[in-house]
Each structure stands twice: as C-alpha cells, then as structure tokens.
Amino acid sequence: MNVYAVKHKDERIRATSRSGGIFTAISDLFLDGGVVYGCVLDENYNAIHVRTENKTGRDLMRGSKYIQSRLGDCYKQIKNDLEDGRHVLFSGTSCQVAGFRCFLKKDYNNLLCIDIVCHGVPSPKVWKTYLDWISKGKTIINVDFRNKKDFGWRDHVETIFCKNKKINSQVWTYLFYSHNILRPVCYECPYKSIDHPGDITIADYWGIEKACPRLDDNKGVSLVLVNTEKGSLYFEKAKNDIVWYKTRIEDSMQHPLIEPEKVPDERNQFWKDFENKDFSYIARKYGNYTPLWRRTLRKAKHLIKKVLGKD
Amino acid sequence: MEPNNKIQNTNPIPILYERKEDCCGCTACYAICPRQAISMEDDLEGFAYPHIDAEKCIRCQMCMKVCPIKEAKRSVTARQR
Ligand SMILES: Cc1cc2nc3c(=O)[nH]c(=O)nc-3n(C[C@H](O)[C@H](O)[C@H](O)COP(=O)(O)OP(=O)(O)OC[C@H]3O[C@@H](n4cnc5c(N)ncnc54)[C@H](O)[C@@H]3O)c2cc1C
Ligand code: SF4
Ligand code: SF4
Ligand code: SF4
C-alpha cells in the first residue's frame, strides 16, 4: 500500500470537493467513454447512487453527503456495464464496495473501485426531519453538508440554501458526531483498519499539519491509500492534474482507520426522544442548538454588563 | 409456481441477519436473488434492510453467499482460530 497527500491543481475543483479533489482527478479518467457511479442528492435531498457518463453528472457527485445513500439497482446496472466492456468507476463507502465485490464474485479488468473512509452513515429519516425543521417550510434550493468556502475545511458548518435565504447551521454536524444516528452496523464496522476493499481509498487528510505541512492551507487535502496494482495504474494517470506527496501511514492514522465508533450510552434515549418529541427538542438536546431568543437574551445580558462596567 | 418445487428443496428460508449490527444494507443479497424475492425496506430508524418474500423464495441460499458483513465476520473468526 502507498500513502499520499493530494490536492487538485485546479482551485475551483478543490473548493467544491470535500477534501483535496482526488475523486475528480480519478473520475476524469472515465469520462472519455467510460461510466462513473457515485452518490448525489436527488430533488428531495435524499442521497442516492446514480450512473453518469458526463461531467455535469459527475460534478454532482462531488461533496460528501452525510447520510446513508440508497443504491437502488446500481449493482445490477454496473454489472451490465462491465459485461458490455465499458470502463467503470464505482465509488462508495467501504461496505458498499465490499458488497459489490461479493456480488460480482470475480474481478473485472475494466472495473475500478474507490472507497471513502467513513466512520458511519447517519439515518436518512432523521435527515429529512431536520431539513423540514431548519427550512421552516421554505423551498430549499441546495444543500452543502460542509460549507468550505465560507468556513474553511476544518470548520464543519452545513449550509441550507433556501429561496432568498442562506441558513448556516451545525446541528447536523453535532447530531452526526454524537453518533446517535449512525446505522447500527457502523459500531461494528469490519473496515476500520488500513485494509480496505477499494483499489483506492480516499479520505480527509486529518493530521496533514504533521504529515505534510506544506500542503496545509485549510482548503482541503485528500488522504489517498493506493491499495492495488490497478489502483496504482490509475493514480499514475491522474498525476497530471494533482499536486501529490508520498507520506507515512503512521502520520495519517485517524480514528476510522483504527476502530469503529462506540455505541453512545444515550442512543436508545435519542431514538425514544426522536419518536416522541418535536425536532426543536432534539436539536437542543443532541444538536447543540441554542434558540434565537436565548442567543438574543445572552447577547443582551452581555451588553448590559458591559454598559454597567461589570465585565 | 408448483407447490412441489418448494417441497423438493429442504433448505430453510435464509435469515439474512439476526441483529441489525449484521447488515449494512449494501443490497448484494437483493441484487443476486434470482427470484426477486428480496425487497429493501426501511426500519423505524429509516435504514433499509432486506426482507424476503417467503412465497417467492426458492431457498437457493445465494443471498447468504454474497453478504460482505458475513464474509468479514467469518474471516475474523477464522483468523482468531
Ligand atoms: C458518511 C460519510 C462519512 C465520512 N467520514 C469520514 C471520516 O470519518 N474521515 C474521513 O477522512 N473522511 C470521511 N468521509 C470521506 C471524505 O469526506 C471524502 O469522501 C474524501 O475526503 C474525498 O474527498 P474528495 O475531495 O476527493 O471528494 P469529493 O469529490 O467531494 O468526493 C465525493 C465522493 O464521495 C462519494 N460520496 C459522497 N457521499 C456519499 C455517501 N453518502 N455514500 C457513499 N458515497 C458518497 C461520491 O460518490 C464521490 O465518490 C466521509 C464521507 C461520508 C459520505
Ligand atoms: S462505518 Fe462501515 S459499515 Fe458503516 S457505512 Fe461506513 S463502511 Fe459501512
Ligand atoms: S434463498 Fe434464493 S430465492 Fe430465496 S431470497 Fe435468497 S437468493 Fe432469493
Ligand atoms: S448482503 Fe448482507 S449486508 Fe448486504 S443488504 Fe444483504 S444482508 Fe445486509
């Protein structure tokens, strides 16, 4: 296995990718007659896996969608493409790639698999409830799970774009990182090591400040594990479009490469609350949410103290 | 389908997962099933799990053989031995 720190040369691409844009550099190699499968948001903001042959379709796959995506009939569809001799890139979570390989039972020369490092996938049902709550009935026109442009790569802020309004929030981030809303299997995930089912494994390069400080500009760097010979072949071809450095795995060991997350003690309580309480309660208790009136009150108190010279 | 068909095959209807922790929802079993006997259905938490229609199932066990989580857990047990 070879380990790399990677950023795309095109800054516009990096700005719209979750980390350093390695997915774009690799998938570009398939847009000339090949096929790319990956995760997009559908018109109702559900994460689904789709097939595309063109750049427009591929660009929609950029950006992490922090919910479990639905594969639908992708496995069968990809197999058909493979049997037709098309060059296919499949990208998904480690278990989606592992499942696909089991389904195929054999290796195809014309298939490349990329798996993304993930520490768990949140519930699509909680996501829909959250969206309804945060948008307050306004029409949503776009969602960015991690607004890198305004907040940088390290600050995890999600932005919901509504008609005439942009809502920045961290409630989803907090719910996600509380680990209450992950799929149960994720707490026992078999892919939490440096062995991965993809030919290439991609992730956020946490620890870049140590592993390769010259690349660290808070705009996003990808950690890339090249696991197979085939993966290395494609990585070589993608090198034209990227800035890359070889790094050491010891400097790159984020938690999801070591072990799964633990089941939180409060998980059962969370789901009880989710069934019985309204979402404002959930957001306050588990999503670190402070309602506007309380924030205003806090500010007012602060101001009064200042005026009275007690601060 | 003739009722006889079912009697010939003495395999049980597979149990794809006993605990939720044993299924990642990858759809491999759903995709391999030769009879379209499996559907992916949401549980209360909103995650999709495979469900076998006993009427359609011919008990061929193909779905059990493509499951990545079973495979991974098997290889862990094998390594521990
Ligand atoms: C649920 C989830 C949890 C993650 N957790 C971690 C983590 O703990 N540590 C870490 O380092 N990285 C994590 N990531 C992965 C990481 O954020 C990026 O995938 C990686 O940095 C690639 O960056 P890029 O700039 O090349 O990608 P982009 O161009 O932004 O890549 C997008 C790729 O991700 C795939 N994708 C997006 N959403 C999903 C989804 N819901 N299901 C399956 N595939 C999807 C697309 O198909 C595409 O291949 C997670 C991603 C997801 C979706
Ligand atoms: S944590 Fe493991 S089981 Fe959960 S989605 Fe990611 S790869 Fe699949
Ligand atoms: S045993 Fe065979 S027919 Fe029955 S669900 Fe599994 S794959 Fe389908
Ligand atoms: S193959 Fe296994 S993990 Fe995948 S959906 Fe079926 S039972 Fe779940």
Task: Kindly describe this structure.
- The complex is a heterodimer of chains A (311) and B (81).
- By secondary structure, chain A is an alpha/beta fold.
- Chain A has one domain.
- Chain A is built from 13 helices and eleven strands.
- Chain A has an eight-stranded mixed β-sheet with strand order 3-2-4-5-9-10-1-11, with helices on both faces.
- In chain A, a hairpin with a 5-residue loop joins strand 2 and strand 3.
- The longest helix of chain A has 16 residues.
- Chain A is globular.
- Chain B is of the alpha+beta class and 81 residues long.
- Chain B has one domain: Alpha-Beta Plaits.
- In chain B, 35% of the residues lie in helices and 12% in strands.
- Chain B has four helices and two strands, in the order H-H-E-E-H-H.
- Chain B has a two-stranded antiparallel sheet with strand order 1-2.
- In chain B, strand 1 and strand 2 form a beta hairpin.
- The longest helix of chain B is centred in the C-terminal third of the chain and has 13 residues.
- Chain B starts with a helix and ends with a helix.
- The chains are: A alpha/beta (311), B alpha+beta (81).
- The complex binds flavin-adenine dinucleotide and iron/sulfur cluster (3 copies).
- One iron/sulfur cluster (SF4) binds next to helix 3 of chain B.
- The site of flavin-adenine dinucleotide has 34 residues of chain A, from helix 2, strand 2, strand 4 and strand 9.
- Chain B: It comes from Anaerobium acetethylicum.
- Chain B: Keywords: Iron, Iron-sulfur, Metal-binding.
